[in-house]
Q: What sequence folds into this?
């Protein structure tokens, strides 16, 4: 069945702060013409530079995925917003923001889902293109693994492993469809270990972090109420969807074991290399 591309029916806006930078930011997502893809535009910088949400524009994968032209012209923590756009079926949009990081909202993609749903989507006069794999594609690094298998649709399976007794090993498997994404994946918040917070802040990261926007784990267990018993692994699925959205619309079964942003990016590169695509 041929599916048409979609964009937002109207612009949406959000004011918040960045998880790592702690900076206040105003973000607006505008509809875009068919065939545009997703673009980010830094309206606070001279000339309002913009760049496509693509694997080739990844400038960092340290604790988040950052896109840009260089270290000065970039946008950090794009993965939750990218996951929401991809998961709900938005193909074309321009994301304008006046600082260096996408707002963290509540640590999940639920706010983006709500705003996109309220705005609604419109079908465009262009057939959506999908990427299909000729065979298995995989990457691994330090015990973490990712494999993408040819499939008729996009699905993600993920195994999160932890020695922490309160967290343990968690497994999740989802077909990435709008309703499933909105209800079962998007609300899952980012993971934070209490003992890592000061270390991260000394590195200039997690400056906007607080217990309201994360699943916080201390030595005795969870320090706040979880939304799902397996919220940790659901969020890993969310991150993986957002990172792979930079590849394009895959028809693949993706299986992850303990992967993070860096390995997600490597899989994206490997998929495009396999397909002979320089996106």
A:
């Amino acid at each position: 069945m041929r599916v048409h591309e979609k964009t937002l029916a109207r612009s949406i806006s959000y004011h918040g702060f960045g998880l790592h930078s702690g900076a206040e930011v105003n973000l607006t997502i505008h509809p875009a013409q068919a065939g545009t893809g997703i673009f980010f535009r830094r309206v606070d910088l001279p000339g309002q530079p913009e760049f496509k949400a693509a694997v080739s524009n990844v400038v960092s994968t340290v604790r988040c995925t950052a896109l840009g032209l260089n270290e000065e012209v970039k946008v950090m923590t794009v993965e939750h917003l990218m996951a929401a756009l991809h998961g709900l079926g938005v193909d074309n949009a321009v994301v304008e923001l006046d600082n260096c990081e996408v707002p963290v909202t509540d640590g999940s993609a639920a706010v983006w889902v709500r705003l996109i749903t309220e705005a609604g989507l419109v079908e465009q006069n262009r057939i959506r293109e999908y990427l299909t794999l000729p065979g298995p594609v995989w990457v691994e690094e330090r015990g973490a693994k990712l494999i993408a298998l040819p499939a008729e649709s996009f699905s993600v399976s993920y195994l999160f492993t932890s020695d922490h007794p309160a967290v343990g090993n968690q497994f999740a498997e989802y077909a990435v469809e709008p309703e499933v994404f909105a209800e079962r994946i998007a609300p899952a918040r980012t993971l934070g270990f209490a003992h890592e917070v000061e270390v991260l802040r000394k590195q200039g990261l997690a400056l906007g972090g607080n217990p309201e926007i994360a699943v916080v784990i201390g030595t005795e267990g969870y320090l706040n109420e979880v939304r799902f018993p397996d919220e940790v692994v659901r969020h890993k699925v969310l991150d993986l969807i957002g990172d792979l959205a930079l590849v394009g619309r895959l028809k693949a079964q993706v299986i992850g074991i303990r992967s993070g942003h860096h390995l997600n990016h490597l899989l994206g590169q490997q998929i495009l290399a396999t397909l002979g695509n320089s996106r």
